[in-house]
Amino acid sequence: MALKTIFLLQMGFGSLANVLLFFHSISPLLFGHKQRPTDKILTHIVTANLLVLLSSGMPHTMAAFVWRKPLSSLGCKCVYYLQRVARSTTLCSTCVLSTCQFFTLIPRKVEWMMLRRRASKFIGPSCCTCWVFGLLLNIYVPVKLTGPQDVGNDTNIEGKWFCSSSSSFAGIVILWSFPDAAFLGVMVWSSGSMLLLLHRHHQRVQYIHTPTGHQQCPPETRAAHTILMLVVTFVIFYVLDSTFTFYITAFLDSRLWLMQSCNVLTSCFPSVCPFLLLLRNPRSPRICS
Questions:
Q1: CA 204, CA 215: separation in Å to the nearest integer?
Q2: Which of 19, 157, 158, 289 is deepest in the core (most CB within 10 A)?
Q3: pTM of the prediction?
Q4: What is the Cα–Cα distance from 177 to 21, expressed in whole angstroms?
């Protein structure tokens, strides 16, 4: 009951926050302005977040409020495939976001400025490629899933809303983890590079005094702080979720609390991400710390 309550709160408040962030990201287009590169990436991340929350929340919502037949075999395949595609797209798009912010912070030399302008042209195609990559990477999911699990107990209706697998596909999961590790490696590299650049910038300006006695953070620095927090949050929840997912798929452990815990962990980043970005909006002025 506690896990179900947490998940329903995640799905409700997380979906609302993602919708608000989506309209915040496309607001420049609505008012006839040019959309920033980071806003383009956030639009894709928010869309993937919503798909993760809605697809993960299907079993919990149906089990809590609907007491009819569970999802069919086709329904299981579609819902879980959509969840895995959206999860992979979130990982890829977050990697693109951290890399884009790193290029924003690099020194303003001629060669770096040319590289940054070229990189900004590939942001849209890169995000679209993330969706295609997620569709192709998880193509095995509909093949392995069979339908609602047989819990062997007619009184345990909730367990029948969760999908099961006909056989263990630990080998495929391990193979699938290699591109994920590559994306995580790029995120860690870009985040570490941003930390180094911010540290050097702080050393240069720490003796500069303003009339107010404080230094106003430029938008690039505030955005870098936010994205660093975003990447750290993503990596923590992703590692925990991957551990639970690997255990369930490798050992075919279909205990209800394990699957509910896995879904809660899957939905942690999509529900936390929009609050972090909305509360730390880089467009509002802040004081450097």
A1: 12
A2: 158
A3: 0.80
A4: 29
